[in-house]
Amino acid sequence: MTNQELAKVANEVRKGVVTAVHAAKSGHPGGSLGAADIMTYLYFEEMDVDPANPSRAKRDRFVLSKGHCAPALYAVLAERGFFPKEELETLRHIGSRLQGHPNMNDTPGVDMSTGSLGQGISAAVGMALAAKHWGDNYRVYTLLGDGECEEGQVWEAAMFAGNHDLDNLVAIVDHNGLQIDGSIDEVNSAMPLADKFRAFKWHVIELADGNDMAQIAAAFAEARKVSDSPVAIIAETVKGKGVSFMENQVGWHGKAPNDEQFEQAMAELAAAGEEL
Amino acid sequence: MADVKKVATRVSYGEALVELGNERDDFVVLDADLAAATQTGKFKAAHPARFYDAGIAESNLMGLAAGVATTGHIAFASTFAMFAAGRAYEQVRNSIGYPHLNVKIGATHAGISVGEDGATHQCCEDIALMRTIPGMTVIVPADDIEGRACVRAAYEFEGPVYMRFGRLATPVINDREDYEFKIGRGVVVREGSDVTIIACGLMVAEALEAAEALAADGIDAEVINMHTIKPLDERLVVASAKKTGRVVTAEEHSIIGGLGEAVASVLAEQHPVPMRRVGVRDVYGESGPAVDLLHKYGLDADGIEAAVRSVL
Q1: Which of the following is catalytic: B58, B206, B222, B261?
Q2: B293 part of a folded domain
Q3: Averaged over A244-273, what is the pLDDT?
Q4: Any catalytic annotation for residue B58?
């Protein structure tokens, strides 16, 4: 797909995020919107996955370590054809396959249950280790929050991956600078992330605009060329990207839009789609 | 019992892994810098390419095992019980239990028989923690033979399993032709009519010794080896309680949340009988020789015998 086509898909994913969170009356729109471009690129361009056979043994894997951005994962999986888009409106409802945080046993296409921060990256490292151990060629991707990097387990996992030369692993840090209690600088910053991953023997790619498809594509292309070390992509993103009143607003980390806000957000995304 | 063969179940674990590794290559063994102590070092020596050391990072140890298991293979994850069930509780719950992954946790150095290392390393809460996790199977083998058998059974079982092994060499009691290990199936190791002693781990041998002492006084104790704490063999618990009318449980674990409470819950709902629980009575342990500690905390034949006499 062209970058413009991918951007159009990402815009549809954003509509899915807003629709799902509005229908759920709770959830995490900010981070989901900010990560929509990267996750669209992963599922539509980068990863070898098959919606008709979501459990295929040799598929590439994705672990949403920042599991609260489940709305983005569900929206992109639905857009990719893993399940009907109408199902997005069941997010967080009783009996739904779309749990508040991802569960691999509920949702087609979800490769690992996540939600408790810091744990997803460990599972991704375990997957990458298994691929190497049994001689499989699939690649493993995981998306972390910058706030999530305050969890000690992230660095336990980074240490292991670096020491085992897991060049089939790519960890993307969604660096939007905000966490629930405020800016990461105010709360307890884990910066500088690039230096930390380098110190743990990772190849680091600094992605200046993680909401720009051309730059995202270039970063993942570079990641594929790396051998003998895992790759960390530190992606600068805008939390709430695409919905004007949510952009860079920490208050939209974990809050659903009301009906009026929902209409406005969907109108903005529709207009953006027209322009693409 | 001076001439009785004694083996620590952690040794059984390490040696069973080696044997399994000789036959199958669809699993890996992970440890967290305790391979010499947990005995996975034996597996490392025999199958070095299938052993991975997570270092002193138990949270990541459990996450790695979970990730491996998502790929359709099996991971054994090993460390001390304190760190497997305690430090990494939430990783076990959310990354292994919730997705019901095929991870086999080999937790060694459980209970007060850790000895000299003292309270920080004497985990008497792991059974309680692990049995609260939905879908988790919890096994406490009684001796070397059962320790080996449970490793193989766990390997063949689909789903997460917590196996609890000890540091202290304890008597081999299951050395007989017809021994069979089935997950969730308790074993009557001594038939009796006056009282039922339900024990697990090293307390099974102590229960048998207590039963012999009681027999000298004309008290006929039935002894059940309840190697699987979850799922509990409820049918056997109730049947034996109906037969004898009195139950004593014995475990090297807190009386809170362990075998005793599991048995008590079943009996309270299905067939209430007078009961006593032998276990660690809501206290921390301390440093000392393992055998002396077991005696001090009432975790031996004397303690079981006293409990039986108090319930008759």
Answers
A1: B58
A2: yes
A3: 97
A4: yes
